[in-house]
Amino acid sequence: xxxxxxxxxxxxxxxxxxxxxxxxxxxxxxxxxxxxxxxxxxxxxxxxxxxxxxxxxxxxxxxxxxxxxxxxxxxxxxxxxxxxxxxxxxxxxxxxxxxxxxxxxxxxxxxxxxxxxxxxxxxxxxxxxxxxxxxxxxxxxxxxxxxxxxxxxxxxxxxxxxxxxxxxxxxxxxxxxxxxxxxxxxxxxxxxxxxxxxxxxxxxxxxxxxxxxxxxxxxxxxxxxxxxxxxxxxxxxxxxxxxxxxxxxxxxxxxxxxxxxxxxxxxxx
Length: 269
Known about the structure:
By secondary structure, the protein is of the alpha+beta class. Helices cover 45% and strands 20% of the residues. The N and C termini lie far apart (94 Å). The relative contact order is 0.10.
């Protein structure tokens, strides 16, 4: 077992994988690999490591480059036998050591490349998580602000909440308007509305009835993302509020055939 380990550590297997052995020397390695599973396993490990590195780099070095490097090194001629394991005198321990160093370097590069890719993927995952967390935090802060604003308005004695009920063409529709009798401010509660979503060609328009005449208070859209209180146009002494479905941008006069909801000021909340 000691002789086999010494043979494996001599560097001849790396030279075999790199193609630096003669035909007889290659045959010798192959015969030993058939007899000894340890040698066979080491050859597989070296080939796998070199293939992994080659694939990670996306290109294969020119054969002449390897020959030029090996031929440029002056290797002293020495000989020696590993007990029980035949060796060819042509290859010295220095050349074996050099081949082993080259193979180890390539394996190290391959391992570093794999580690770098994994670290890069981890950094990307962390960036995605940080972005998701930031979006979630922003959403929570937005909802918290809207809730605080809503509570302040509900607790303000100057605000009255008017509930607008659905008409015959949209019986299930509901929406609430907060009216400040002191400042004449009008706020639309988008969080609590229950109305069909409008398409790209239409918008809902809020109206106030003042002295029996409709007064435009602005347009709004209904969507899944609608939330909070929407500031509408101010109005003085309204008797009622209503919403119609109009062409995008609004209308000068309400389309009564598209009257969706209506509610009177002063009614029960």
